[in-house]
Amino acid sequence: MEEINFDVPQSARIWNYWMGGKDNYPVDRAAGDAWAAIQPEIVDIARQSRQFLIRTVRYLAEEAGIRQFLDIGTGLPTLQNTHEVAQAIAPESRVVYVDNDPLVLAHARALLVNTTPEGVTTYVEADYHAPSLIVADARNILNFNEPVAVMFMGVLGHVAEYQRAREIVARVVDSTPTGSTLTLWENTNLTESARLAASEYPDSGAVPYRLCSVEQVAGFFKSMELIEPGVVPINHWRPNRIEVGTLPAGIDAYGAVGRKV
């Protein structure tokens, strides 16, 4: 495993900073502040992304009956992680986290543990640029003859080319059986502030982040059955306790849940 580099900003730590966490360093906070100075909405996007994860995992475990989760590019643990949400509903849920950031893996060893005796929670050290390796390792834990919930939560912008990102997602989803699902969201390019922030982000030393169009987000779900409400701003995906006429403005990050048919 790589050593933790305290001199170069890392996306997982920057995201942790935006979410109000403490697992970040001055270089990460500087990079995060530089982005937020241009696009203040990014802080809300970070926090809404966790709510999107909670709502989608709850749907998958409670309504869709999924009992296996493959969370790729999981990031640093925070409140209400995938296994906690899933196992609270279905104690037998099996969750595999995938990441290659050394700080993420250090925290995973300490914090990503079962919340129930029936369940399984573990992690795979791998880069999502190597989907075949991820699938091979995940097969040691998950039964790929039964539905698997594949998750890519805001991480594929670090893949330099959109078509390559599509290929990565397709390789993982293609390895799963009918009835499996894909949950995915990405930062989108609808606002000038988002486009400018993303263009200047590499100046911080962090790995560049490529924004998606809404059409490109939808492209990840080609040939899948979209679960209502489809591809929408992540804060509009089945929001909790929203009264008629009070839906908040959509944010510049879109996602969806799709079912393999």
Task: Give a verbal description of the structure.
This protein has 9 helices and 8 strands. Helix 4 (82-89) links the parallel strand 1 (68-72) and strand 2 (94-99). It is of the alpha/beta class. It has helices spanning 11-18, 26-38, 41-62, 82-89, 102-111, 131-138, 162-174, 192-200, 214-219, and strands at residues 68-72, 94-99, 120-125, 149-153, 181-187, 224-226, 232-233, 253-260. The chain has a single domain (49-235, 249-260), classed as Rossmann fold. It starts with 10 loop residues before the first helix and ends with a strand. The radius of gyration is 17 Å and the shape is globular. InterPro entries: SAM-dependent_MTases_sf (IPR029063), SAM_dep_MeTrfase_SAV2177_type (IPR006764). One of its GO terms (molecular function) is methyltransferase activity.
Order of helices and strands: HHHEHEHEHEHEHHEEE
Regarding CATH, which class?
Answer: Alpha Beta
Number of helices: 9
End-to-end distance: 37 Å
Global outline: globular
Tell me the number of structural domains: 1
Structural class comes to alpha/beta
- Beta-strand residue percentage: 15-25%
Mean pLDDT comes to: 92
CATH hierarchy: architecture: 3-Layer(aba) Sandwich
Helix content: 25-40%
CATH homologous superfamily heading: Vaccinia Virus protein VP39
**CATH topology heading:** Rossmann fold
Oligomer: single chain
Unreliable stretches (pLDDT < 50, length at least 5) are: none
The strand count comes to 8
Radius of gyration: 17 Å
InterPro entries: SAM-dependent_MTases_sf, SAM_dep_MeTrfase_SAV2177_type
Protein name: SAM-dependent methyltransferase
GO molecular function: methyltransferase activity
Keywords: Methyltransferase, Transferase
